[in-house]
Amino acid sequence: MSLFFPSTTNYNLIIQTSISLILTLLFTLLNIPSFLLHGLHTYIHPDDVTSQNPNPNSNIKAAIRRPSDGELKPRKKTKDKFEFDENKAQIFRLKLNHNHLQSRLYFDQLKGVFSFTIVACVSLLIHTIIPRSSNESIGVISNGTLIPILLGFLGFVRVLVSVTRVSMDSSGSKSSEMQLSVLVSVLGCLIVFLLVNEVFPNWVVDFEFRSLDGYAKICVSVFMGFLAGVLYVPAAKMARAYWLATDQIRCNLSMIYCGWLGRMLVYVTYLMTVFVSLLWISPFADLLVNRNVGVKKVGYTNRLVGNVGMSRSDFEVFRLYCLLATGVLQMLSLRANLQMFLNESVLSWYQRLHASKVPDLTYSRRKVFLHNHYLCLAGIQFFAPSALVLLFLGLSRIDDNVLDHFPALCNLLPCSALVKEMGLFMSWWVVFVSGVFVSANLVLYRQGILYVS
């Protein structure tokens, strides 16, 4: 590693500053965040197409068209005459480009959140790769540690503010979901308060909270409860996206669920989220840890727990990599989730089209418009969990005792716990609550209590 990065500490500061500035310029000049949404298929009704789409070279195509004259079959004549224009029953597909996206609400916020998060994650990754001097007298500025700390902290604050703002938009979320998010916030605060005060037995979760004082425990509990409440609405949308992407409703419409690649990505992301949620639950973690590594024992035992698996040190590294993979997978599945968000309005149109002989498409027309208009709002909500996981995990890997250089701050906050244990706990908490919320919604969908319409 030293062949690529000299040991001089000033190089760390130069590398961090240069890469951060270069990435910021690239995201600004090349408009890279637009590629997140570029090429997605959105849908509009014929009334929204200018002059009934006179341009034959336009990229607007009918998703479901009226059959040709040769395909038409004679129908039995009935006495009742229904005044229904079949042309208005069609729905048209539009491929999004940058000009379309600029008119969407919260587009600038999504661009800013995405760019800042990627820059902060790259800075935190570089900090874990390049060597740093062990001389504590050098300081955090010359050592280059202050840049990833600031970028990581400002990154998660920006993500949290953005997702909170869009979740409070009453027109973009259901009132029932907003009320449930408040209830979830209170329950989450209570559960974390019991965890940090070790009311639950020590074998429940594999975290230590002894370094936190009473004031810090209250702050952590309130923040974690707030975080759980904010993440409920994104998790509910992720559950609907999973339900449509994997065609759980068996509608057999290829225009609604995604292809095999997107479907596999959605499956793996959900399974990985559930798996990582269990890695810090002590009963499950004990099954993967072999406590007898390096210890000579005579005889055999029938007890499984503690006698199979990997060593404790390898297990710690393993679940950190799994946490990292979960955040990356959630970020990679962003496009699939957004496409399912748009396809949700198509399902609503299809259901109402076949609900009666004289369909009332007013509701589906409004739903198509709203899903079009609030696409970037949903993008922020889908992007927030993965961004928070990666940022919290990156902050937890900073082990330079950076806060020791700020005595005034260390007098208010427990430095080691804040940088190390709490960063890791926050990252796992985001994955855990997302897994619980998505799983609970999927169970309700399976039982028919909830349904996508």
UniProtKB/TrEMBL annotation:
Please give an example of a GO cellular component term from this record. membrane
Enumerate the subcellular locations listed in this protein's record, separating them with semicolons. Membrane
- Please list every transmembrane segment annotated in the UniProt record, as residue ranges: 13-32, 112-131, 137-161, 182-203, 215-235, 256-281, 318-338, 374-395, 426-445
The UniProt keywords, alphabetically, are: Glycoprotein, Membrane, Transmembrane, Transmembrane helix
State the superkingdom: Eukaryota
Q: How does it sit in the membrane?
A: Multi-pass membrane protein
PANTHER family to which the protein is assigned, alphabetical: EMEI, RE42071P
Family per record? Belongs to the TMEM161 family.
What protein am I looking at?
A: Transmembrane protein 161B
- Tell me what organism the protein belongs to: Artemisia annua
